[in-house]
């Protein structure tokens, strides 16, 4: 009845920091980000992972709206 989860320690924290920086810039900037960041933004929107970005309440709602805009502009939304 247990689900085993394997976690691996981060060897280079700069990779995650760069990803978080690019995603934060995409949320703050009105322009379409690069393709990789747009794909990540789409995943965050679809999975409703705004809390993983440290966002709650109105900030999370605004971020979700912006993430959906990025997804739609990048052609990942399916519309």
Structural write-up:
- The chain is mainly alpha-helical.
- It has a domain at 43-79.
- 58% of the residues lie in helices and 0% in strands.
- The protein has helices at residues 13-28, 35-46, 57-74.
- The protein is globular.
- The mean pLDDT is 86.
Task: Kindly summarize this structure in a few lines.
With 79 residues, this protein is an all-alpha fold.
Count the E strands. Answer: 0
Which range best describes the helical content: under 10%, 10-25%, 25-40%, 40-55%, 55-70% or over 70%?
A: 55-70%
* Number of helical elements: 3
Overall 3D shape: globular
Radius of gyration: 14 Å
Secondary-structure element pattern, one letter each: HHH
* Main beta sheet strand tally, sense and closure: none
Q: Measure the end-to-end span.
A: 40 Å
Q: What structural class results from the helix and strand content?
A: mainly alpha
Strand content range:
under 5%
Please state the average pLDDT score: 86
Spans of at least 5 consecutive residues with low confidence: none
Provide keyphrases for this structure:
mainly alpha; globular; 79 residues; single chain; 0% strand
Q: Could you outline the blueprint of secondary structure elements for this entry?
A:
Elements: H1 13-28, H2 35-46, H3 57-74
Helix pairs in contact: 1-2, 2-3
């Amino acid at each position: 009845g247990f689900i085993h989860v394997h976690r691996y320690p981060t060897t280079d924290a700069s990779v995650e920091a760069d990803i978080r920086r690019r995603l934060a810039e995409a949320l703050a900037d009105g322009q379409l980000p690069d393709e990789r960041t747009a794909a990540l933004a789409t995943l965050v929107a679809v999975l409703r992972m705004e809390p993983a970005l440290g966002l709650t309440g109105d900030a999370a709602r605004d971020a979700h709206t912006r993430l959906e805009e990025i997804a739609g502009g990048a052609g990942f939304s399916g519309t």
